[in-house]
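Quick one:
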Amino acid sequence: MWSTVFTGRCTAKVFITFLERLAKQAGRKIHVIADRHPVHRFKAVRAWLQDNADRAELHLMPGYSPELHPDEILNADVKRHIHAARAQSVDELAHETRRFLHRRQRQPHLVRGYSHARHVRYTIMWATQ
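Output:
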């Protein structure tokens, strides 16, 4: 599981930087399942994907279908364990979120469980290719 935490706006530059890092760390072609957030469809993102088609492929989910998106299971896990009200600043909240995500990276049995929910099992076929 790879993730990024940032405190600013999600821009094409932020997303492309994330994709670049993912592709480099994976060492093989990555398949990214994303919602239809405008940034995922920006020209700069499409151009990067076209130039890096051998390294990355973006799969956009149907609009308004968070129940089909495995990230929503991770988001729910984060929300259950990170208490925003306790954070004294945005930076502290980002720090706690990063800590939680790093901890989850060391718990692959839990991360695999995100893909075993009935409505997102389709993601397993990509993970095994």
